[in-house]
Write a structure and sequence with these properties.
The protein is of the alpha+beta class and about 475 residues long. It has 2 domains: about 200 residues, Creatinase/prolidase N-terminal domain (Creatine Amidinohydrolase, Chain A, domain 1, 3-Layer(aba) Sandwich), CATH 3.40.350; about 270 residues, Alpha-Beta Complex (Creatine Amidinohydrolase), CATH 3.90.230.10. It is about 45% helix and about 15% strand. The protein contains 17 helices and 17 strands. Strand 14 and strand 15 form a beta hairpin. The longest helix has 24 residues.
């Protein structure tokens, strides 16, 4: 018996001594506490909020916490729950029990047995085992103070996930006659209503979305790092692109740069599209061999510490813009820079777009095209942008943050801490030509900062960089694969 106990003790000690941080070093406990304080104010003194953490993955991938859960506490343990008590302005974390046999193979993670350490590391007020969750929710339902439980109604964002695709996945499952299972959020809402009928269940998502819209200085630093890695991958992509390579080779090269520099994955699947594949903005197959004379669209970014970026460049496969590429791309870049130059704090997207559209019309009047279809495409681009600028729902692009298509809704003047990308597209339908650039912009107190401004977009700059050998030339692919 003593031998068994000793073996158990030695195994346990080895696991506990594992040389990894158990709590994020990217954000301080104080920053998470500040985020929770906003939520207490949002839900009020007669409510609690229940946030469900992500599940254990059902494949051999690393666990990644959901954005919503991580944003509020930074804890990366699967099947965790967080209760925010608006009456006491306190946070309670519910963790599963540790499973020694699993930890022997996978390493230590924070569990209910580590309650004191979790409180010390994270600043969370209370830490309980998950067994206590029902008991505590029952107490709230019986109290004379708490009348409402808030929980996110929108699907949680996980690995390489945005809400747009998460909602689509739920809708697709609902249409499948042999599937139709509800979302985790839907199941949680249903169970809360069944078990605690005295509590009104309300949507917590709008409060979270509004808080995430304005980024802190540390959040912007994380997005800046993700943007830099995206730009470095694109620079290397420009150097490595030559006729005869495949789209997926550039994908692999970019992922190497991301992972080599500490990313936990990609923010979305790579949109690396040669020739007419670029006509489909979310083409991601990566199977095409790149051909001389074509343009390549390269749109890819990493997930760096739960924060994303979204950068795109267009360039010729052979490293030299031909006549039609110069005409269309040159016109597009002029219009694109007109938008960038007008962005500033204190102004609405609608006003900025109207000013940019006026400048685009001047650029159009000075542009020459070798084909009528190119001229028509340029006119349609300006006309469409001008019409969009008239709409009360005018938008410069999309928010960027924890998700590549980040959450939040605001149609007022741009405010410091807002982070977004612009990505207008020029299309020539007759030849399936699609040209698009994308940069990430941060609104500051005095202006803006283009995080990707060191990544070239001008024709001469791109051609100069593409003369250099890239990683794919320095490290050719496996001979066996090449023969296939």
């Amino acid at each position: 018996m003593k031998k068994i106990f000793l073996a158990f003790f030695l195994i346990s000690s080895t696991i506990i001594a594992q040389d990894i941080p158990y709590f994020t070093t990217d954000f301080t406990p104080e920053e998470f506490a500040t985020r929770r304080e906003k939520m207490y104010e949002s839900i009020g003194p007669n409510s609690v909020a229940l946030i469900q953490g992500a599940q254990v993955p059902n494949n051999y991938t690393r666990f990644r916490q959901s954005n919503e859960f991580y944003y509020l506490c930074g804890i990366e343990t699967p099947h965790s729950y967080l209760i925010l008590d608006g009456s006491r302005k306190s946070a309670s974390l519910y963790l599963p029990h540790g499973i020694l046999s699993r930890e022997m193979f996978e390493g230590k993670m924070l569990t209910a047995e580590d309650a004191d350490e979790v409180k010390q590391l994270s600043g969370i007020n209370n830490v309980y085992s998950i067994d206590m969750l029902n008991e505590h929710l029952s107490r709230f339902s019986r109290s004379n103070i708490i009348s409402t439980v808030y929980t996110p109604f929108s699907p949680a964002e996980g690995f390489a996930m945005g809400r747009d695709l998460a909602v689509r996945a739920i809708a697709d499952a609902a249409m499948d006659p042999f599937d139709g299972h509800p979302s985790r959020e839907g199941m949680l809402i249903q169970k809360l209503k069944e078990k605690y009928p005295a509590l009104e269940v309300k949507n917590f998502t709008p409060f979270l979305d509004q808080a995430r819209l304005i980024k802190s200085g540390k959040e912007i630093e994380m997005i800046d790092k993700a943007t830099r890695l995206s730009c470095l991958a694109l620079l290397e992509g420009m150097k490595s692109t030559v006729p005869g390579i495949y789209e997926h080779e550039l994908d692999g090269m970019a992922k190497y740069i991301y992972y080599r520099n500490g990313s936990q994955g990609e923010a979305y699947y790579s949109l690396i599209a040669g020739g007419t594949n670029a006509w489909y903005p979310h083409y991601a197959a990566g199977k095409k061999k790149l051909v001389n004379g074509e343009m390549l669209l390269f749109d890819f970014a990493p997930d760096y510490g739960y924060y994303a970026s979204d950068i795109t460049r267009n360039y010729p496969v052979n490293g030299k813009f031909n006549q039609w590429q110069k005409e269309l791309y040159g016109f597009y870049v002029g219009c694109y820079k007109a938008i960038l130059n007008k962005i500033r704090p204190g102004e609405t997207a609608q006003k900025i777009m109207q000013e940019a559209a006026a400048e685009m019309e001047i650029i159009l009047s000075k542009s020459k095209f070798s084909k009528p279809i190119y001229e028509n495409a340029a006119k349609e681009f300006v006309s469409s942008y001008k019409n969009s600028a008239k709409s009360q729902y005018a938008s410069l692009g999309h928010w960027v943050g924890m998700s590549v298509h980040d959450v939040g809704f605001d149609k007022g003047p741009l405010k410091p801490g807002m982070v977004f990308s612009i990505e207008p597209a020029l299309r020539v339908p007759e030849e399936k030509i699609y040209i698009r650039l994308e940069d990430v912009i941060v609104i500051t107190e005095t202006g803006k900062k283009v995080l990707s401004d060191f990544l070239p977009m001008e024709i001469d700059e791109i051609e100069k960089i593409m003369k250099e050998d890239g990683m794919l030339q320095k490290y050719p692919k496996d001979e066996f694969t090449r023969l296939k």
